[in-house]
């Protein structure tokens, strides 16, 4: 289908891709994966590496959803800080979560192993919107260092010019283990690697229902076929409610919008260290430079599914507030998409019988999604210890049922957005 939100810089600069098969000759497999984003692709690839036969079904094309439209920011960890995780879950679980979500960079490993051309760059800066935010960042940096021997750089307000040419921020934390990349080209690279391992990728085919078969396997009813599989991995994220409505109750979609300027002569002066940047606001700004020196900027959220008529005009004021020196810069691309957000901003991962699922990465998924897909493959192969670390994270559905869930969630989100404005 034609998507009004798909006019992205990533789509315009994507590496060539066409699946080897438009249909599957054999509609039986060990593992059926639903969804061609980072989670589904990494799960399919990891399952194939373990010797399973795999069919991946994608409603549109590889990387169509958030995996191919996001800000391209690689932020280690989860939405909770390590100190929050330890306070809530205790030392042992915090250690396990840290090892998986901070120390274990599976995206970099996949890029290196498969030679994926996706403009990978190192460095991520969290910028403090208020002095109080900077104080909290300094405490967390000290905790990371003393508790986990994980080194970050505390950047004072006076030193921020080494990273960002903007007067707005009160300091920050630079994490050299973070970074940024071209997300759609990473998805395409995963797809090519998966095909090389024998994964059959079916694009433009929608899964309408998962049913349990009498022999204990599952049947997937799609728009064209019936696929029989021993195991199913549901990696549809924002669309999970269309396949499994009860799982859809655990997230609400938040619309995010990005722009890409024309190439900038002063790009390096805007972000001298070439790190990706995200600030500490609840409705955050996040931005970075592309390989061809455009500023890719995300700002503002909408809680309606209807996009603004002019995405560039919607995002430009946020960019101009951070970088007044390019307030009138030409904008070549504007796009958007839905981010699936959970109640507590932690991902919802689990297993029900022979169906595995992972969704609700809450805008923090460019790194953890690859890990989640690989952990599902581990569990499916019989080693569930690391999968259980993520599957044990608490989760609960949004209140309000089918009709009130989104309005009630929107009220809560608007409250926190208002706190941003009031400082």
Quick description:
The chain has a domain of 183 residues: FAD/NAD(P)-binding domain (3-Layer(bba) Sandwich). The protein is 34% helix and 24% strand. It is built from 14 helices and 17 strands.
Distance between the termini: 42 Å
Strand segment count: 17
Q: What integer value in Å does the Rg equal?
A: 21 Å
The CATH architecture of the domain at 9-69 and 185-250 and 345-400 would be 3-Layer(bba) Sandwich
Q: Name the beta content range.
A: 15-25%
Report the principal-axis shape.
globular
Biggest sheet descriptor = 9 strands, mixed
How does the SSE layout of this entry go?
Blueprint: H1 9-12, E1 28-34, H2 38-49, E2 54-57, E3 73-74, H3 82-89, H4 91-101, H5 106-114, E4 121-127, H6 131-148, E5 153-155, E6 172-180, H7 183-196, E7 200-202, E8 207-212, E9 218-222, E10 226-234, H8 240-243, H9 245-248, E11 252-261, H10 267-270, E12 276-279, E13 286-289, E14 295-302, H11 311-322, E15 331-341, E16 348-352, E17 355-359, H12 365-380, H13 385-391, H14 401-422
Helix pairs in contact: 2-7, 2-12, 3-4, 12-13
């Amino acid at each position: 289908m034609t998507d009004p939100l798909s006019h992205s810089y990533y789509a315009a600069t994507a590496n060539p891709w066409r699946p080897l098969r438009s249909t599957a000759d054999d509609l039986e497999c060990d593992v059926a994966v639903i969804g061609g984003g980072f989670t589904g692709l990494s799960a399919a690839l990891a399952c194939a590496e373990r010797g399973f036969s795999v069919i991946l079904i994608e409603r549109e094309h590889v990387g169509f959803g958030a995996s191919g439209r996001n800000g391209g920011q690689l932020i280690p960890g989860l939405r909770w800080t390590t100190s929050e995780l330890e306070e809530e879950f205790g030392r042992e679980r915090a250690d396990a979560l840290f090892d998986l979500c901070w120390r274990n960079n599976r995206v970099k490993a996949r890029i290196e192993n498969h030679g994926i051309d996706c403009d990978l760059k190192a460095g991520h800066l969290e910028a403090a919107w208020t002095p109080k935010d900077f104080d909290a960042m300094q405490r967390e940096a000290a905790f990371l260092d003393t508790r986990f021997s994980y080194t970050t750089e505390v950047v004072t307000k006076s030193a921020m010019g080494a990273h960002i040419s903007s007067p707005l921020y009160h300091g920050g934390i630079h994490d050299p283990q973070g970074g940024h990349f071209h997300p759609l080209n990473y998805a395409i690279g995963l797809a090519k690697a998966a095909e090389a391992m024998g994964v059959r990728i079916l694009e433009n085919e929608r899964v309408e229902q998962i049913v349990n078969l009498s022999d204990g396997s599952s049947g997937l009813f799609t728009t064209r076929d019936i696929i029989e599989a021993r195991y199913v991995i549901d990696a549809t994220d924002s669309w999970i409610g269309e396949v499994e409505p009860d799982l859809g109750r655990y997230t609400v979609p938040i619309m995010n919008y990005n722009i890409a300027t024309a190439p900038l002569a002063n790009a390096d002066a805007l972000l001298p260290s070439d790190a990706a940047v995200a600030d500490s606001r609840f409705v955050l700004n996040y931005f970075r430079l592309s390989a061809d020196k455009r500023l890719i900027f995300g700002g503002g959220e909408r809680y309606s599914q209807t996009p603004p008529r002019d995405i560039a005009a919607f995002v430009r004021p946020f960019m101009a507030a951070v970088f007044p020196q390019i307030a009138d810069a030409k904008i070549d691309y504007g796009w958007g998409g839905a981010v699936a957000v959970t109640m507590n901003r932690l991902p919802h991962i689990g297993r029900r019988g022979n169906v595995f699922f992972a969704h609700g990465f809450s805008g923090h998924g460019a790194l953890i999604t690859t890990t989640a897909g690989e952990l599902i493959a581990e569990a499916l192969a019989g080693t569930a210890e690391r999968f259980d670390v993520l599957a044990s994270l608490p989760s609960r559905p949004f209140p309000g049922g089918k009709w009130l869930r989104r309005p009630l969630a929107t009220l809560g989100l608007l409250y926190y957005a208002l706190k941003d404005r009031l400082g």
